[in-house]
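Marked as duplicate of an earlier ticket. Keeping the data here for the record.
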Amino acid sequence: MSGADPTASRPGYLDGTEQPIISQLLLYLGENRLSGAFTVSGQPGGILHLRHGLVTAIDTPAAPPPLNILRTSRRRHIQRGVHTPHDLGLTTAASKYEVSPAELETVCLASLYDSAFAMALSSLDGWWPQNPAEDPGTQHLMPLRAGVEPRTLVDETDARIAHIAQRWCSPTDLARMQVQPSSRAEATAARLTPRQREIIIAANGRRTPRDLAFIIGRGVYSVMVDLDRMRERGLIVCVSPDPTPAVVTVTQRVREPAVTLPPAVPEPLPHRRSSPPAEGTQDHRRLPAPTIWSALVRKLRPGQEPPETTKGADESAP
C-alpha cells in the first residue's frame, strides 16, 4: 500500500487548521484502490463504501440518507404513508417514488457529497475494514453505479467548509447551534420563500441545522447556506448551546459524631418470688424454731446419743 494511515498519528477531529481527517482517509483509501466497507468510529462516525478506490456511498447519522430525502421531499404526496425500507434498491426505489433511475442517481450523488461534508465536521477516532460476509449490514444496497473519485469528493468538501467559514463562522460551531425564528420572521411570513418557510416552521429553538435537515428532507450543507441567507435578513437567531452542564444540587447529609456509650452492665437473672401464705395456714417453707434438744445435740460429744424423752417434752420445757 502507498501512503501512510492518516489516523495513525492524528486525532480524528477538525481543528480549523488541518484537512479534515475524513478527507485524509478518503484519499488514503483511493490511492490504494481499496474495495469494501470501512467503518469510521467517532461522533457520530459512519461507513465508507468503495469499489476499486471509488466512493460509491457513505452511511452516517450526521446527514440524511437518500431515502429520507425522498420521503420528506415534495414528492412525498405521491406515496404518502407508504413505508420504504432501506434495502429498496435503485430500481425499486425509482418505481416506488415515480422518479427515473437517473433522478434517483442524482439524489444519491447529492447525499454522498453531503455525507462527506457532515462527517468532516465530526470527531473521528479510527477506522477498520469490514467483512460483508460476517456483517451483512455493511453492504449498501443503493450504491452509485459510477463511483466518485476521492480527490473530487475531498475538494468539494473543502470548498464547502471554506464557504461557510468565510461568510459566517466555523461550520463545526454552526453544526452545534440551536436555531429559532426571530420576531421579524413572523412579521414577514407572507414574503418568505417555500424553503425559508420550511425552516421557520421546523425551527423551535432546540434543533440544530442537522436536525432541520432530517426534518425537512434536505442536505446539511444546503440548510446551512439557507440559514446564512436568513441570518442576513434577520429572520433567524442561532444560539450556541450552553457548554456548562446542568448542575444537580444535592443536599449532603452531615454525619453526626459517634457517641461512645458506656459498657452495658448485664442485668441479674430474674428469680422467682413467692407470695406470702394465706392467713390461717402454716408456712412450711420456713425452718422450725430451734428447741432445747437441738441445743443439747450440739453439746454432745461425737458418738453420744441424746437421752430419750416423751413426745412434746421439749415443748413443755421452760
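See parent ticket for discussion. The chain is about 35% helix and 10% strand.
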